[in-house]
Amino acid sequence: MFSKDTAYALVAKQVAFGPRVPGTDAHQATRLWLVQKLKSYGATVIEQSFKANTVPLGEVRSVNIVASFNPTYARRVLLAAHWDTRYAADEDDDRPKEKFDGADDGGSGVGILLEIARLIKENPISLGVDLILFDAEDQGTSDGNEDTWCLGSQYWAKNPHVKGYRAEYGILLDMVGAKGATFQKEDLSNVFLPEKTRKIHSIYDRLWAQAKGMNQTTFFVDLKGKPLIDDHYYVNLNTDIPMADIINKPVNSAKGFGAHWHTHDDNMSVIDPMTLGAVGQVVTAFVYNSSRAPL
């Protein structure tokens, strides 16, 4: 069973390393810990190194961490999150140039995926499952240049860890731990061609139906929001894997995200085990249910 308390502890462990900004000692220490942790759960781990050309940091060595369960299985699914934290709390009114904890923005999705990895070790699944922790997601500019964001997923989508990699679907987790979080479906009607859009929307519909069946509609609200540039966008753009994004987008939010987004309030005080548990339980159930037959 998915443990919300274990997921919470795994978020806290990341935060304890310090801000995980590429090129820092905290980033390096977190990478070593993540790799060791995933290997301890029986995953085959690949570290995909690449050079990320960022505006605020310059060129920094970055690493996508890929953990595969049942690597020889043909049927595969992809679960992802980003593990880096933004270079500075540039949305903060008081200290916009300082690094911040990134407990929710980065830490929460990774914590849930690590707990799912533990469950897969203890409850073998008849499906190939790949967990990808994307790096250099949060080092973009705020001037509207979309391609400065999500550098790890951009790299992976064009250079998958296995040549010819295919997965039946993908689920991205981003900012999935805050108290009172709400997750909306994404309306991609004018973003991709109709057939691709239909497949992605189908994943959203099935995920939210799973949540409804598990009485988690407080978190998974039956609304469609505007398209978002997040790691899933580049997976959808550059591969044939239909990928949904579970991300906290409060209804009528002034920023589009939670008030703690890219501020120093994004620390452990904003993380709620209940939110982690809701997301983790829904995603875990979805993956194990889909192991019985293709979607």
From TrEMBL:
Residues 64-287 form the Peptidase M28 domain. Keywords: Acyltransferase, Transferase. InterPro entries: Peptidase_M28, QC/QCL. GO terms for molecular function: glutaminyl-peptide cyclotransferase activity; zinc ion binding. It comes from the Bacteria. Gene3D superfamilies: Zn peptidases (3.40.630.10). This is M28 family peptidase. It comes from Candidatus Opimibacter skivensis.
